[in-house]
Amino acid sequence: MNENSGNGGAETHNPAGGDLPALIINGQYVKDLSFESPNSPHILGDLQQGKQPDVNVNVDVQANKIEGGPSQNLFEVILEMRAELKVEGKTGFLVELKYAGAFTINVPEEHLGAMLLVECPRLLFPYARNIISDTTRDGGFVPLQLQPIDFAGMYRANLEQQAKTQAQAHN
Description:
Elements: E1 23-36, H1 42-48, E2 53-65, E3 74-87, E4 90-105, H2 109-138, H3 151-170
Helix pairs in contact: 2-3
């Protein structure tokens, strides 16, 4: 990390060369957080009786250029996470989180997508994971510990799907 940057964030090597770091974290923040437990306290009793919960987790990444900022290379990346626990079809909890970061990115255009949709969410994920864990624990449940996410795999799958869709559109 460049101690003179004053940004307090992570930096990576700039493949384009030059003095600017490839990635600067300008800030991280919760955009939206929601927790619901519509069947408490009964669902907690079901869990204590050993009934197996079904947990479904969905993750999405959004990236947007921040217009009018101090830099032309300023982007907001939003990690959207939704986790739902059900026991025998009854909802135990539903937690939804939009955790975001403002990033300055100084890479060639061909690397921008990977930086926004792989590297930035990879940096945001541990903080979002902790918020989900704390929120489910504070809601009276065993803390939900999400496993690491393969953002590179998600990115590749998305590129393959886009290529397939474009190929079908041209046929």
